[in-house]
């Protein structure tokens, strides 16, 4: 079994987390931007500068990989390592959400 | 130079990119639209109808192939690419309702932009120390060219101080953003 070093990338920023969530299927940059806005119900918008920076960093760390290139648009998808990191992040967020829900009546 | 063109030379420190963006926007509001940039600190403007363009700067170095992908991404998001000045990438977009006007949408990616400038500055800072180590200043004149060597030393020291200043100010800018 692989040693799990997912925690060294955590916590992901909200933008990075959403970008990775969209990359369960291959998508190019602009499609990622639109999908993040859609699935976050407009709470998170990712600008092209932020997105390009995230793509570069995630690719360098081997969390995403380039799968296709057409008309100067490159598509990326999560690697197994990237899926692992995202899974660990989701579990941590789930714990946090449960904690939040348990006290929500007291707020 | 044609009548409808204007060239300006203006210095901005690397931590003043937001001031630079604001200046370019005010030029467009007066009807002078940035048409290209170049070294050293040259801005070329073309006259036209006053328009409300916002300008945004990124700092990126990359091979040509990646640059096309990069520019395409910004184009898809509605940004017009204007040019590059020592790795600073210039974009603009006309202000309209419902249009996002930022290329960086979180603090972390703004900090990452400033951090991309630092390795280049550190490199020069270290090279200057290695090439021109600070030697004791002697009043003896052991060689005829000693004066010239000392003049170069002083010049190198000034450049080194310049780099030190830029590194400190960028670091302060990053710290200021982190506190937000």
Draw up the topology in text.
The complex is a heterodimer of chains A (107) and B (180).
Chain A: H1 14-22, E1 27-28, H2 29-39, H3 48-60, E2 64-70, E3 73-78, H4 80-103
Antiparallel strand pairs in A: 1-3, 2-3
Helix pairs in contact in A: 1-2
Chain B: E1 5-9, H1 17-29, E2 32-38, E3 42-47, E4 53-59, H2 64-76, E5 80-85, E6 88-94, H3 107-131, H4 146-178
Antiparallel strand pairs in B: 1-3, 2-3, 4-6, 5-6
Helix pairs in contact in B: 3-4
Describe the protein in words.
- The complex is a heterodimer of chains A (107) and B (180).
- Chain A is an alpha+beta fold.
- Chain A contains 4 helices and 3 strands.
- In chain A, helix 1 (14-22) packs across helix 2.
- The termini of chain A are far apart.
- The model of chain A has no long low-confidence stretch (mean pLDDT 94).
- With 180 residues, chain B is an alpha+beta fold.
- Chain B has 2 domains: 5-94, no CATH class; 107-178.
- Chain B has 4 helices and 6 strands; from the N terminus they run E-H-E-E-E-H-E-E-H-H.
- Chain B has a 3-stranded antiparallel beta sheet. A 3-stranded antiparallel beta sheet of chain B has the order 4-6-5.
- Chain B starts with a strand and ends with a helix.
- The relative contact order of chain B is 0.12.
- The mean pLDDT of chain B is 90.
Summary, kept brief:
Chain A is of the alpha+beta class and 107 residues long.
Work out the largest interface and the residue count of each chain. A-B, 23 and 23 residues
- CATH topology group of chain A: Arc Repressor Mutant, subunit A
Mean pLDDT over all positions of chain A? 94
Mean pLDDT score of chain B: 90
Q: For the largest sheet of chain B, list the strands in their spatial order.
A: 1-3-2
Helix content range of chain B: 40-55%
Identify the CATH architecture of chain A: Orthogonal Bundle
Assembly type: heterodimer
Residue stretches of chain B low in confidence (pLDDT < 50, at least 5 long) are none
What is the gyration radius of chain B calculated from CA atoms?
21 Å
Q: Report the radius of gyration of chain A as a whole number of Å.
A: 15 Å
- Report the strand count of chain A: 3
Number of self-contained structural domains of chain A: 1
Overall form of chain A: globular
Q: Can you tell me the overall shape of chain B?
A: globular
Sheet-strand content of chain A, in percent, reads 5-15%
Give the SSE order of chain A as H and E letters: HEHHEEH
Helix content of chain A: 40-55%
Helix/strand-derived class of chain A? Answer: alpha+beta
């Amino acid at each position: 079994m692989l040693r799990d070093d997912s925690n060294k990338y955590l916590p992901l920023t909200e933008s990075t987390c959403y970008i990775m969530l969209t990359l369960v299927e291959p998508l190019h940059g602009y499609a990622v931007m639109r999908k993040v806005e859609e699935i976050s119900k407009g709470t998170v918008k990712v600008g092209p500068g932020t997105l390009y920076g995230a793509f570069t960093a995630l690719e360098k760390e081997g969390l995403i990989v380039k799968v296709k290139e057409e008309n100067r648009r490159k598509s990326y998808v999560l690697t197994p390592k990237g899926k692992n990191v995202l899974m660990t992040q989701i579990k941590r967020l789930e714990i946090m959400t449960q904690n939040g829900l348990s006290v929500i009546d007291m707020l | 130079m044609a009548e409808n063109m204007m060239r300006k030379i203006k210095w901005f420190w690397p931590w003043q990119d937001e001031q630079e963006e604001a200046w370019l926007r005010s030029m467009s509001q007066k009807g002078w639209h940035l048409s290209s940039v170049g070294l050293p600190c040259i801005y070329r403007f073309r006259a036209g109808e006053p328009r409300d363009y916002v300008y945004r700067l990124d700092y990126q170095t990359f091979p040509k192939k990646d640059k096309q992908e990069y520019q395409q991404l910004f184009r898809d998001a509605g940004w017009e690419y204007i040019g590059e000045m020592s790795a600073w990438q210039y974009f603009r977009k006309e202000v309209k309702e419902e249009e996002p006007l930022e290329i960086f949408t979180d603090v972390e990616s703004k900090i990452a932009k400033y951090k991309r400038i630092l390795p280049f500055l550190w490199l020069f800072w270290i090279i200057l120390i290695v090439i021109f180590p600070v030697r004791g200043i002697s009043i003896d004149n052991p060689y005829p060219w000693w004066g010239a060597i000392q003049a170069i030393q002083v010049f190198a020291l000034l450049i080194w101080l310049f780099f030190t200043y830029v590194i400190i100010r960028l670091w302060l800018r990053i710290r200021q953003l982190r506190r937000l």
